[in-house]
Structures are given as C-alpha cells and as structure tokens.
Amino acid sequence: MRRMRVPGYHLPITKVNVVPIIDVSLVLVIILLVTAPLMSVADLPVDLPQARSRDSEDERNISITLSSTGALAVDDEVVTTDGLPAVLQTHLAKAGDKDVLVVVRADSGAPYTEVQKLLEEARDAGATHLAIATRQKTEATR
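Above: the chain's sequence. Below: its structure in token form.
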C-alpha cells in the first residue's frame, strides 16, 4: 500500500541546530577578547614617555595612572593620594598572586618625584614587581 502525503503535514523537528548558537558564542568571545584589555586602564589622558620595548604591558598587571594634572587611578578606579595605599593593597590581595606586575603609567610631563613616590607606595603596599609604562619608539622618530 502506498503512503499518501497529507498537504501541510511535516515531520516534527527532532534535532537542534547548534550552528547558529556556536556562531553567536564565537562572536561574543571575540568581542570579549578585544574589549577586556581596555577595561583595566583608567580614562585619564596620559602622554607616556618613549622607549624601545614594552613587553611588560602585555601581561596581567595592576596599572597606576598619574595624569599631568596629578589625578591618580588604580586600574579603572580614580583614587586620591591618601587612599592610594589602601586601594593598592586591596588590588594586590585581589590578584591573588604575589608576583603580579604593578605598572606605573605617568604622563611625560609629570614630575619624576611623583613617579618615584608612586613606586615607593606600591612597594610599601606589597608589590614585588614594578615597571614604568612607555610608548614604543618607532624607528622613524630616532
């Protein structure tokens, strides 16, 4: 006996198509990878001094930013000079790693004595690895 097809009747969908789910999740992962490094740096305008290498900025670190006006920030949190040690200790404890790198991002117009004070306060707060951020010098600007 021959089976007749009834118009408008379709077989039920028994499998889930996961390709669109994978596509959307990969796009979200790419967006996260692109935007995550931008979230850990404060929005203070800083003109960094120039240097030949910048290997230390590619690691996970705690960033202390000093603007030309004297404003301070730890990662993305704006702080006062009095509150800096407590905030640094909190961030160092949160990192959970004693060897986390503390990077001082100071404007090139900021007095060096202020940068030195920041480095001393970071060491007093428990930082063992310190660095000063710079812009990479291109070959054409020699």
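The CA atoms of residues 7 and 13 lie 17 Å apart.
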